[in-house]
Specification:
single chain; 273 residues; alpha/beta; UDP-N-acetylmuramoyl-L-alanine:D-glutamate ligase; 9-stranded mixed β-sheet; two-stranded antiparallel ribbon; globular
């Protein structure tokens, strides 16, 4: 059995964060493990405002020591890491244990919060995590921050950002356009760059607000695909289809958000890991 590890925050609603990652790992037939970096709660009395409680980096380190005592996972995925101290702890663990198939989801913002989590996080991710990433999967906002280009409005902008981010050391960069990208073809466009070729991955745009957890799930699906022996492009392509099905079959949670359904790809009989 393949083992997959997520180092991420906890979404109390179960839709995103490590909960989404573990559900995705299970759907892919891998054994999921998790190191928790933060706990996110929402205030129903204050327009669903978010509070992020950061786990002490030393505790994150102990979790990772516990996990790696069982051997190297077949893939590792990071999500919301909280602060630069935790980012350093994660890099130290990667250097110490040398895991393979490292997928960095460079979470710089949390839905329901204003702005990026900490401006210094972007620099730490660039310096410490991108150089060891087999795949990194920023969204448009994160790619604009990491590349230093700001708003990405065209495909040419996205390709330029991918080239810059690749220059920091990530072997493959996949920039998630999703519905944030203003295109005229009603498509959800992701751009994948491996240092040589650009691949444009397209799916019909799903007009739904039940998309909570889509980004986390996408990166987790890539990690699980790599753990199962898929090539990088195969893992990204399958992850795209997996998430598209999950959004298409999403369900509302309350008046503020709706979750994707992680079992949709399997329900459609399209997935046999």
């Amino acid at each position: 059995m393949k083992k997959t590890l997520t180092i991420a925050g906890s979404d109390t609603t179960g839709g995103a964060g490590l909960q989404a990652d573990l559900k995705t790992f299970q759907e892919y037939g891998t054994f999921g493990m998790s190191a928790i970096t933060s706990i996110v709660t929402m205030d129903i009395h204050d327009n669903w405002s978010h509070t992020i409680e950061t786990i002490e980096p030393e505790v994150v380190g102990r979790q990772l020591e516990t996990i790696f005592a069982g051997g190297k996972p077949d893939a590792l995925k990071t999500g919301m890491l909280g602060d630069i101290r935790t980012i350093a702890v994660v890099r130290d663990a990667i250097d110490r244990y040398q895991p393979k198939n490292i997928v960095i989801d460079p979470v710089l913002a949390c839905k329901g919060t204003a702005g990026i989590l900490h401006s210094e996080n972007a620099e730490s991710i660039r310096e410490l995590l991108l150089p060891v990433a087999d795949v990194t999967a920023p969204n448009l906002i994160e790619a604009g921050i990491l590349s230093g280009l700001g708003d990405l409005k065209t495909v040419a902008d996205i390709e330029k950002a991918a080239t810059i981010i690749h220059g920091y050391g990530a072997k493959t960069v996949i920039i998630k356009g999703g519905r944030r990208f203003d295109n005229q073809h009603d498509e959800a466009l992701d751009v994948c760059y491996d240092g040589q070729d650009f691949h444009h991955l397209k799916r019909p745009l799903v007009h739904s607000d039940n998309n909570h957890g889509a980004g986390c799930t996408f990166a987790a699906a890539i990690a699980a695909g790599l753990a199962n022996g898929q090539s990088t492009l195969e893992a990204v392509t399958t992850a795209k289809a997996f998430v598209h099905a999950a959004i298409t079959n999403g369900q509302p949670f309350n008046q503020y958000l709706g979750h994707i359904w992680h079992g949709a790809y399997r329900d459609q009989g399209r997935f046999n890991p």
